[in-house]
Amino acid sequence: MRYQIINDHLIIDQLKVDTDLISQIKSAFPMRLVQPLINQKMVSFNDHVLTTTIMVRSIHDRLIIPLIEPAIPYGYHHDPLKVLYEDALFLIVSKPKGLIIYDPIDLKNPHTLVAMIHGYYQTHGVNGGIYYLHRLDKDTSGIVVCVKHAVFVGMLTDYFTKNHIHRQYTALVKGVVEPKHIVIDQPIGKNRHASNRYLVLPSGKSAKTQIDVIKYGSYHKIPVSVVQATLHTGRTHQIRVHMEYIHHPIINDPYYGSTIDTFGLKLHASHIDFIHPLTNDLLSIDDPMDFQLDTIH
To answer: CA angle at residue 151 from 206 to 16, to 5 degrees?
Structure first.
């Protein structure tokens, strides 16, 4: 299938010939979202209303599905939003540290990332939903990928689950990390003795983090290393747990390290890349972070 989004409509061609159209739709999109549109005669196939199952006869056959999003349930505010990339499908932004992505108790809470995005949508006349594909901890800053249309959420969540997305973080950690290249391949599980905390646990889920030292220095007269952490899996608190495991906890990590000052956790989602599902081009996004060190060597 080839996908295009034009004027809030999803246009699909290069379908599989001599195959039932509905089965192809089911294989790509959740029918709970598409079937109501078919029932309301809003989906067209070769410029005719799609009302029943049909066989695809040519790669030039064309399916058009309107992209209709429900009202956004979140609150909003209009603080400046750092947009790293935007097109008809994606909105990729940089989350400030100290900000939660959303509030499950009060969806109208204006002090969340989705409220900032909602405000951005209103200011810029964007028609779409807010479906974030992954989360960052409140105290972690950096790249968050959002999808504007619900029909793509399952497909792109699968990208993350199967590690088709390459993610890197920049962290300031305690001590001199040696050697400069380390692969930490240790399973992570819940800490039964501390709520919302995790640890390296033989019975946990597999977790793999690659650590590369960028530079050494000092911070508040403490020897530190700036490292790049590449995730090969996506466990909760993975980098934080793995760095504590090798005795180089992230600076200002209240769970797995120690607090040195009031400037928050020194962990930043700095890079992401993946194949764009509409264009098949490599989408590579950077949001660099330069930690201010007392001295560098």
So the answer is: 95
